[in-house]
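Is this the right way to post structure tokens for a design question? Let me know if I should format differently. Anyway, here goes:
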């Protein structure tokens, strides 16, 4: 971070990552200080299971960051801009920071966001600050609460059932594991089937042409023998040829899932490395926001790209109108543009070879999506022959000739054939060969396949795709081989236990419905507490008990309430100091071998944070 003189500072901006802060600092003058929150500033430590409200505590080191913001504000530097990422998590971070500032009587913070880290976008955002999105915040908090509640309770059940070997389950993690296991089961249960392929020959314009014959079904050995008899010595087939122009739609612009897939395929990089390269590219201002389920770009961006294409390749490579939206992905919010370069003229970016290769893939796809697709003249040749069991022998051939290469000018190879010369209405066909083949089982899913499946089912969000796969590998539930993702014995065990105890949580429809409800909260169509109450009813029966066992250690001398300690899932080396019979209100961590004095000190030491506010607002919970 740049060191600036406090006397010059008039404005403070808070973003999420240090790299992004460094990029933005370079766009602003010496009156600005851009600081990085480095992710969330508070973390959910426990839940009141009665009211399904969260117990929050500052992440280590984050309160010092906010104290620095307060210090600037009290010196008259009261222009504070919350510029965290423009998504649900970013809104939560901005809200947590704003809440802290409000508690210190600082109400001057303004919310700004930009879809790309460019000088123009940053300055434009400063001109139009807006309010925090209360519905998005509610949805984000609801998401964190259900993830915590399910993760803690289900993970405890899982650990107990596997003697502490399988250590975690999750709202998105568990269905993702189930997707991988379902494909493995599909492969294991696959029944091979044999069939025959019959090839024949004909002469067109004095050149031999090989065709595959069909009877409108899979051919068996008996069919093969019958066809051979009919064609013995040659048979006359009716031949018809037709020609029409065909042109596919251009490829869509890249959302997060398709970007991970295309870049991983093109660069041969694992999804985790592609994800890190995307983050780097966004932070240096090379591409737009990377967590998106939109496949469209802004009108201004489209116009700029059309001007570039026209100047570099010619007007025949431009699109006459902006493409309409594709069919919407299940539960897609489309709050942002698709992923695209912020400057289409830039062919190179700052970074290593991996970052460069990912950028080139995005740029190539953006240009292809902004050009017309190749135009072909397609010939269809249809052959109709003698009857076998009242069904005519048939064959079809297709030949494509390029009329205009369109987006393939960017280098992607396309077929360019020649039309067959058909001079007569009939042609003589002779037998060539008959070969047996078998159906093949599906292949294992690769990381990008799992992401595509999650996207199509409406499970998870763009921000979670890559991290979920990392978690599954990190927990040794799955391992990546040359053939794809394969579950370990531990992964199989974890999946079976979750299916038995929590069948809903690996049911794709149920998981998708939860995402739909969270989106409804974000739109303001569903109340957070109604959602959480319903969620708790569905989850409590399989959990059947508290996520933690607590141990009574005494009565607090000041509050006159029972005190407990329990092991903390988030820190196995310490304990959670709890106050009140509810037993799930976390106040502070205390040493593993804590004395009663240690617990009292831990509780008292936390009295200045949000837990004190909870005591004031909910006194009945401790009566």
């Amino acid at each position: 971070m740049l060191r600036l003189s406090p006397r010059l500072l008039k404005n403070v901006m808070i973003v999420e990552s240090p790299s992004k802060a460094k990029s933005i600092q370079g766009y602003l003058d010496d009156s600005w200080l851009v600081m990085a929150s480095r992710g969330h500033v508070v973390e959910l430590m426990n839940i009141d299971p009665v009211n399904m409200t969260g117990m929050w505590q500052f992440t280590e080191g984050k309160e010092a960051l906010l104290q620095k913001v307060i210090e600037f504000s009290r010196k008259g530097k009261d222009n504070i801009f919350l510029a965290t990422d423009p998504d649900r998590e970013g809104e939560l971070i901005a809200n947590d920071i704003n809440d802290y500032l409000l508690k210190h009587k600082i109400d001057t913070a303004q919310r700004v966001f930009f879809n790309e880290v460019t000088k123009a976008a940053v300055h434009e955002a400063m001109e139009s600050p807006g309010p925090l999105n209360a519905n998005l915040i509610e949805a984000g908090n609801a998401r964190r609460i259900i993830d915590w509640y399910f993760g803690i309770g289900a993970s405890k059940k899982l650990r107990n059932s596997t003697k502490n070997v399988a250590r975690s389950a999750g709202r998105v993690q568990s269905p993702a594991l189930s997707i991988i296991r379902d494909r493995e089961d599909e492969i294991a249960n696959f029944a091979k089937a044999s069939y025959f392929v019959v090839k024949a020959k004909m002469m067109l314009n004095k050149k031999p042409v090989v065709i595959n014959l069909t009877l409108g079904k899979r051919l068996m050995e008996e069919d093969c023998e019958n066809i051979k008899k009919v064609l013995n010595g040659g048979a006359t087939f009716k031949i018809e040829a037709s020609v029409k122009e065909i042109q596919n739609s251009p490829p869509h612009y890249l959302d997060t899932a398709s970007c991970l897939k295309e870049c991983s395929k093109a660069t041969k990089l694992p999804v985790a490395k592609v994800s890190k390269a995307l983050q780097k590219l966004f932070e240096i201002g090379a591409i737009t926001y990377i967590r998106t389920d939109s496949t469209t770009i802004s009108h201004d961006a489209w116009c700029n790209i059309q001007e570039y294409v026209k100047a570099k390749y010619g007007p025949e490579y431009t699109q006459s109108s902006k493409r309409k939206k594709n069919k919407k992905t299940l539960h897609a919010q489309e709050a942002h543009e698709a992923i695209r370069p912020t400057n289409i003229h830039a062919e190179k970016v700052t970074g290593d070879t991996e970052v460069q290769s990912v950028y080139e893939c995005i740029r190539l796809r953006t240009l292809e999506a902004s050009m017309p697709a190749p135009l072909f003249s397609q010939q269809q040749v249809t052959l109709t022959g003698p009857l076998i069991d009242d069904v005519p022998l048939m064959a079809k051939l297709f030949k494509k000739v390029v009329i205009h290469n369109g987006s393939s000018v960017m280098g992607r190879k396309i077929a360019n054939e020649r039309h067959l010369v058909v001079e007569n209405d009939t042609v003589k066909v002779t037998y060539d060969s008959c070969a047996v083949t078998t159906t093949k089982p599906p292949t294992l899913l690769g990381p990008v396949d799992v992401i595509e499946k999650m996207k199509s089912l409406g499970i998870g969000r763009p921000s979670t795709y890559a991290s979920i796969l990392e978690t599954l590998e990190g927990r040794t539930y799955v391992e990546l081989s040359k053939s794809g993702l394969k579950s370990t014995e531990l992964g199989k065990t974890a999946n079976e236990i979750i299916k038995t105890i929590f069948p809903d949580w690996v049911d794709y429809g149920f998981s998708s419905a939860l995402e739909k409800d969270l989106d409804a909260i974000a739109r303001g169509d569903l109340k957070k507490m109604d959602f959480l109450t319903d969620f708790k009813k569905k989850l409590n029966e399989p959990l059947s008990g508290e996520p933690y066992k607590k141990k009574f250690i005494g009565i607090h001398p000041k509050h006159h309430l029972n005190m407990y300690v329990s092991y903390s899932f988030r820190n196995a080396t310490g304990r959670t100091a709890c106050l009140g019979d509810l037993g799930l209100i976390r106040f502070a961590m205390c040493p593993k071998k804590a004395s009663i004095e240690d617990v009292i000190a831990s509780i008292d030491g936390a009295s200045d944070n949000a837990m004190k506010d909870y005591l004031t607002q909910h006194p009945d919970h401790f009566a």
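Format looks fine. Someone answered above. Worth noting: The chain has a mean pLDDT of 84. DSSP finds 18 helices and 18 strands in the chain.
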